[in-house]
Amino acid sequence: MYKIFFSFLSLLIISCAGSQSGPKWSSVSLMYESGPLPPKYQYSYTVTINTNGDGGVVCFVGADPSNPSLTYDFKCTPENTKKIDEAIKKSKILEDEITEMPEGKRPIGGHLEKVRVILENENPNLDQPPKVKESPYFPDEKYRSGLNNLYETIQKIVPSSVWDDFEKKKSEYQSKN
What we know:
Helix 2 runs antiparallel to helix 3. It is built from 4 helices and 6 strands, in the order αββββαββαα. The protein has a 6-stranded antiparallel β-sheet with strand order 4-3-2-1-5-6. The chain is of the alpha+beta class and about 180 residues long.
């Protein structure tokens, strides 16, 4: 009788532990826009990192849509992927529906940031699009700290050589126009 009870208890603990892990992400993207600046000073970028460590940054300089994008690729270490995983969990973007700040309380001017997380397909045999969780540009105050931590974590993981080259090309563009 004890063996049956302990077997059942063990099975229950294992199944509960497996269900506690929650949804898993496969890709995270940080989207940044410089905000309302004169056209030659405007810029934007998107950083995308996959759980396998592949990362990339696509940048745009100036407000002219015909300007070519600047594209950088990098590799994310397993330690940095774990840091992103922890920041995603702390942001609560996977478990909560992040609401927006009321329109009258939003800041005027400044840059815009948001994050998009693509979830792992729970059953790859089903033909279905992946689930996506996205933060608004102006999240409610209770989510702001966790999301800012996620934004900073993603930005810090991008190699400094990428940011240095982007800053150099941005400065060159601004001095020519």
